[in-house]
Amino acid sequence: MSENIFIAPRLTGKRFEDSSLPVDILDDFRALEELIIEIAKGLYLEENTIRQRVPKGFSDGVYLKLVSIEDGSSIPMFALSTMMSFSSGLPFEEVNFSYFHRAKDKVIQIIANANSDSEISHDNHKYISYFNKIGRNLLDDESIDFGYNFEKSESSSAILNKKTRKRIILSSQQREYSAEFRLFALVPAIDLDKKTFSIETEYGKKECQLTENITDKVLTAVQEYNNKSYVSIQGNALFNSSDRLIKIQEITSFDILDPLDVSFRIHQLQQLKNGWYNGLGTELNKETLDVFANHFNSFYGSKLPLPAIFPTVEGNIQLEWKNNTRNLIATVNMETLHANFFYFDSDSDEEKEDNFDLSQREDWSFVNLFIINYL
Predict the structure, then answer these.
(1) Do the bridges between strand 10-12 and strand 143-145 make them parallel or antiparallel, or are there none, so unpaired?
(2) Which of 223, 301, 226, 216 lies closest to 262, judged by CA?
(3) Which of 61, 173, 278, 357 is most buried by its number of CB atoms within 10 A?
């Protein structure tokens, strides 16, 4: 089997900064493998019009093999390998591999065309459905450069991100596309006989399939519905061209949230518009809120109490902790993430004030210590 590198896409984004490869991204490359094989078959039939099907063994045992992961974000190095020999009498390398290499080039061209707003040819529309899987696990800040030249360390125009992927899928007659989702919801009802349950979301009311691994959590969520107990749901869903969720296809994670869950509260604050408080109140910076939430979830002590979080009319946020007579208030500037912490004990009149930079990982250790000392 040849160890020559077949394709070495470059992945960028926070998850790839340590030159690692998250397990879910492997699903994207498995779909890429399927697409390349399908295109290779199509190319063979286009050039051999007297045949109605490809030769026996044409793609049997052909697969992408992950050889290594190189630095420079994450650059997985894939070789094209086979476990079987070609049975048509022609050398495998001369016939089959040439079709697979050309198939790879066609994939790269499809992505490059989407990035340049060029029209994707009608002949390629039959392959578009594969992009419902390729790139499905990318997050908002992530992309894959499928045409990356690893030998020269040169980027290409064949960069797939969530926006490009959507453009590719909707370029055909298809008006819907599949994508990863995370949403917050209430669970008003469950039907054990039909193995379904309903959720109330910002997209309206949706019905979901009930699987055994989440049944207990769903039952608890239904019981807590009147208490406005929210859940966090992740999985795959079908969206229309306006990015509105049409149907939930698969649930991969279902969690009942703490009433003070920070990610959910930040999501609520991101929905506020200018004038949210009696005509006053500045809209909060959504990107900075995301940064704050990521830092909080990563660096805040897991055993420490969660704060209540409120918006201020100036467009900042205020965090509040209370333990009997002890009170702690932190005002966080949404432009700089600088935070002023003020502690006071209403019984002893003790006070303490300090400032921390919540954009810096090091300062979060001091925040945790401050809360431990004064709560």
Answers:
(1) antiparallel
(2) 301
(3) 357
Q: pTM (2 decimals)?
A: 0.76
Q: What is the pLDDT of residues 77-132, one digit of tens each?
A: 999 987 654 444 444 444 568 899 999 999 999 999 999 888 777 778 889 999 99
* Residue 133 CB burial class (10 angstroms; 0-12, 13-18, ≥19): middle
Tokens of 181: 């989702």
Q: What is the DSSP letter of 277?
A: B
Q: Which residues of 280-311 are buried (b: 16+ CB within 10 A; e: fewer)?
A: ebbebbeebbbebbebbeebbeeeeeebebeb
Q: What CA–CA distance (Å, rounded) separates 29 from 139?
A: 16
CB burial of 56-77 (b: ≥16 within 10 Å; e: otherwise) equals: ebbbeebebeebeebeebbbbb
| CA 280 to chain CA mean position, Å | 34
Domain 178-256: give its CATH code: 2.40.50
